[in-house]
Design brief:
alpha+beta; 7-stranded antiparallel sheet; 6-stranded mixed β-barrel; homodimer; 18 helices
């Protein structure tokens, strides 16, 4: 059984936790990021994205290009992700002013497109002659991909076709080169593959499918393509090492790959497109490769927070079980990409395993990427912060103890915005017989198969999920997360014993049915495999999908704390509204007295105490202090 | 009270542990390294050191330079350290053949010296015009320093003056430039400072003292010297970053420095020269700076093994308490330098604190740098090895699980050789009234103050140290190490209650006295400050000065092991002759059963077991396997 592509369901988040975050995106993040894109946000890094489009249009018209291009070679994609975030937001929260702002930006983008369909401000402004000469570093296909995603989302949100037509022309330009004219190569940074699949599903333009298939299958067939490409030109963007075939996942064809390696965002973007293609084409060989790569990530290379890409060196996956807490890279974008990959694997095979990881990555690493006020953002998401070491030691410079307002490389902030505002796309799925509820979020959903329902829940802080079936007559599939040690489902107040397949409870629903899913609200301890050197003797705390952490603001010094095995975990009675409505968890613990010297031959004395944990995603909102997810365990 | 410079005592190691290592140096390491220096050692990295001297001599004579220069810019120093090792070895173990070999090498070196006293094969062969233009990277002063040390040692060993005269001419050449002609600058890699102090103490040539003082005091007065120097030339050796003032300890004058920073070998070589100069000149300001830097290292930045320089990035000190086990750099040379620094601090102030660290670094990190067969060498000394991660993960490439035969950058192997063969210089000290016994080693010592004694001990595997006083009439000062929770001293069989000042027991000895020092032989646990994030909840095992570690060869998988707090530590009945005569220690432990998944919400079950530890310095001698110094503690 497969789930149809997510675009088929309409969903309107109306309340609860997700609504609050989506409102934050709408009310704060989208306007704030628009100011950033226009270089009007005080104290934030310069972006220049909008100016780049204006200057590219001038360049095409042969006018003076003003202050030229500024930013990363892939700066255009920040605008694309912002449009996508705005588009998804407009689906749930119509807003004429925002729509007009987006329309105006789309007009600018259209003006920056060349006659032949080419669209990229870096090369249009800097040197048209260098187009398509540096697939390894140039990010032209990457930027096109992001803009295609934006085009699809904006069409879906508004029915407006302008950007979609721009990107169809762009797709045809790319098709002409790589398919019709058989140009060699594949993108340095995968992204366009998954975007072309979106374009294909929306427009049914087979050129898009053909291009996606081409880029996915040709990758790594010649692992030395980037070296050959580099040899042909006398310039580079960053001087990337073309011989590092792991970095860009081109050491072998994807179908032959077994381990998730290299730049983690590139990897999961590639796998997302591949999983989507595999499902579309019933390519079992490709799907098997995706499954192997999924297992490589989630069974051996993923943090308990759903963070992936443990090393700064190449922003990359490390080897199996190398999961350092303090130097974890864990780019926010990588966990977003992991959600995308999980969503596609889930469509190919409705198994809660995928939805569980999707949820884990969302509620922990993705949300941790955003300050609770929506104005600051983490690029990296370590599991330990020690002021004095983090961001100061040479090996820890990337481990920021506080979120900055923007980043020179600003891929993450708009990526988080578009992800949060498209939450419904990850929460629901369907096929002709069944409506799938993967994630829990307040709101209304209209499935294309006719099912319509409203969901109300305080999840992830409440563990009851109510569904009112407005239109039934089909099967409902409710995910039971693996973390929930017990659960119950009632239909109209009666216990319901549903068939559970791969973690989904399947049962038929009729119009007017009231379904209640109750999950296990008890906090619990988590342990790691002994194969993870960093985590031997350690324990963490979770409740529902939320990983908790211990921060200085609640505990003073965190380093001397150890948790007691089997100690009682107590959930606070009240939510902390200043901390996103979080409920704290208090754990039985001991606090070691420092020995007063670097080493001592006497055991450190310890005093019983309580250790207070907050959800990991809320850390770093109360000033710089020690933070740990994993504590040593007294047993 | 000060101790006179160590050169004053003569010592002949004749048995026991140190003798075995010195014989290994003499019988294996010195001959093996000589083969390496001549590029005749199979499977070892090319050295070309001897060929470089030959080719430099040819260059000076205007002859064809053959295959030119090969190796690091500081390749000459490998020959210098080899000569020094040979010289120290000749003191205890006369050997005509070896002496002739050294003489021949010295003849070659003398031929490679330019008329003006300049001596450096890299610049002599490659480009004479580039001499002294790149103090930052060129290592000319560094190589001179090492050759001065070799010259002093060889004169002391043989009374032969040829190399000493070569280096006196070299010193005068340097004096002329930097003092007489007031050339600006200071060495990128300190070393010549401590060597000039040695030259001064041997020759009483005040130019050497003046030069040492100059280089130590001028350093960092202009922190931008290397940038200015770099701006004047159009070439570099490695493209070092001249603006990294911490790397080369030139961010401020040494007297104003508080933290041990930058390249750790450079740092401790500099501090060694400074401490020696401070003692010589009674410069309390300089000595205070050395004391602050000593505390920075030993109280906040040193591993339990006496390893220093925790990060690969710049082979450098990190910040306080950042002491990762798995990625520890801990260069062998840095611990040798720490011993040198400790020895000089000890001369300035006879406090066991210095001798304890000297001993810790020697018996653990320095000896770990050498394979038990004397043919392979570690450059880095991590405290954890996990096959599959160590040397494979991008952040761990330097953490070798096995010693290679030689290194492209071969500073450590000959450094370890010269250190081991000069052990007596660290073991003893004296002034007019007192003979100091800092470290324990079998053999005979003649102090210049008239005291003569023999020492017999199985230390560090035996804890009784016997001294036969062949010539008395002075005070004997015996160090009582801080790790020894109890001790006793007897004189001629009677308990002796000596005054103990700063960890030294002082008492008068007469000819014929038999003194016995008995130290605590019980193995013990070690704990770390809660300020060290890496070590919370962890424990290590020591016996005497030896840090122990747990290796796969004795334990199978080490990662699942935890030690029981207060568990009995049992020393094996027999020494393992295949493992350098080591006694194993068995600890009460538990072994966790793996949960079979990356994360689990169930605690890992644990089975009681025994964990077997071996001395850290013997690890890596039985194939590649897991190794850990610190284990999680069950408490």
């Amino acid at each position: 059984m497969k789930i149809q592509h997510q675009i088929s369901s309409a969903h309107y988040i109306s309340g609860g936790f997700i609504n609050r975050w989506q409102r934050l995106v709408k009310d704060t993040i989208i306007p704030y990021q628009y100011e950033v894109l226009n270089d009007r946000a005080e104290g934030a890094e310069k972006s220049h994205v909008i100016a780049n489009f204006k200057n590219a249009a001038k360049a095409l018209r042969g006018e003076d290009i003003g202050d030229g291009f500024y930013g990363m070679v892939f700066q255009d994609s920040d605008a694309a992700k912002w449009i996508e975030a705005a588009a998804f937001s407009l689906i749930s929260y119509p807003d004429e002013v925002l729509e007009k702002t987006v329309d105006a930006l789309i007009d600018l983008i259209a003006e920056a497109q060349d006659e032949d369909g080419y669209l990229n401000t870096y090369f249009t402004i800097n040197d048209k002659e260098k187009r398509w000469q540096n697939l390894m570093e140039g990010h032209e296909l990457y930027c096109s991909g992001h803009m295609m995603e934006a085009a699809c989302a904006y069409y879906e949100a508004t029915g407006k076709k302008k950007l979609l037509e721009v990107m169809e022309r762009n797709a045809e330009h790319i098709y002409k080169m790589f398919i019709a004219e058989k140009r060699e190569g594949y993108p340095g940074h995968p992204e366009i593959e998954l975007a072309l699949m979106k374009m294909y599903r929306l427009t049914r333009n087979v050129h898009c499918l053909e291009l996606a298939e081409h880029f996915i299958n040709v990758r790594g067939v010649d692992p030395h393509f980037f070296e050959k490409e580099a040899a042909k030109r006398d310039w580079s963007v960053w001087g990337n090492d073309a011989t590092n075939h792991h970095y860009a996942q081109n050491f072998a064809p994807l179908k032959e790959q077994n381990d998730a390696v290299g730049h983690s965002v590139r990897a999961v973007y590639l796998y997302t497109g591949a999983a989507d293609l595999a499902a579309e084409k019933d390519d079992t060989e490709l799907l098997s490769a995706c499954r192997r790569l999924w297992e490589s990530i989630t069974k051996r290379r993923m943090y308990v927070t759903g963070g992936i890409g443990s090393t700064l060196i190449g922003e990359a996956f490390s080897v199996d079980y190398d999961l350092p807490n303090d130097t974890a890279y864990n780019e926010t974008c990588a966990s977003i990409g992991l959600m995308m990959f999980a969503a596609k694997m889930l469509e190919a095979d409705p198994d809660r395993e995928y939805a569980d990881v999707m949820e884990l990555a969302f509620y922990n690493t993705v949300l941790a990427g955003v300050q609770l006020d929506g104005k600051k953002f983490f690029y990296t998401n370590p599991l330990e912060i020690i002021p004095g070491i983090s961001h100061i030691a040479a090996t820890h410079w990337h481990a920021l103890p506080q979120r900055p307002g923007w980043h020179t490389c600003a891929c993450c902030p708009p990526n988080a915005a578009r992800l949060i505002s498209s939450f419904g796309k990850y929460a629901y799925g369907e096929n002709t017989t069944t409506a799938f509820c993967h994630l829990y979020a307040d709101g209304e959903v209209s499935f294309k198969n006719g099912v319509k329902l409203t969901c109300s829940t305080e999840y992830p802080y409440g563990f009851t999920v109510n569904y009112d079936i407005i239109q039934g007559g089909k099967t409902l599939a409710l995910r039971i997360p693996a973390w929930s040690k017990s659960y119950s489902i009632t239909k109209n107040g009666e216990a319901l014993s549903a068939e559970v397949v791969k973690g989904y409870a399947y049962f038929d629903v009729s119009t007017g049915d009231k379904i209640t899913l109750t999950l296990d609200s008890a906090p619990y301890y988590v342990y790691a495999s002994t194969k993870v050197p960093e985590l031997t003797g350690c324990v963490a705390v979770k409740r529902g999908p939320l990983v908790y952490c211990f921060e200085g603001a609640d505990n003073g010094e965190v380093l001397p704390l150890s948790l007691k095995r089997g100690g009682k975990l107590t959930v606070s009675d009240t939510a902390d509204t200043a901390l996103d409505g979080a409920f704290r968890i208090t754990a039985e613990a001991v606090r070691a007295d420092d020995c007063g010297s670097l080493y001592s031959s006497e055991p450190l004395t310890e005093q019983p105490c309580e250790a207070v944990a907050i959800p990991y995603y809320t850390w770093g909102n109360r000033g710089e202090n020690q933070m740990r997810v994993w504590l040593s365990e007294v047993r």
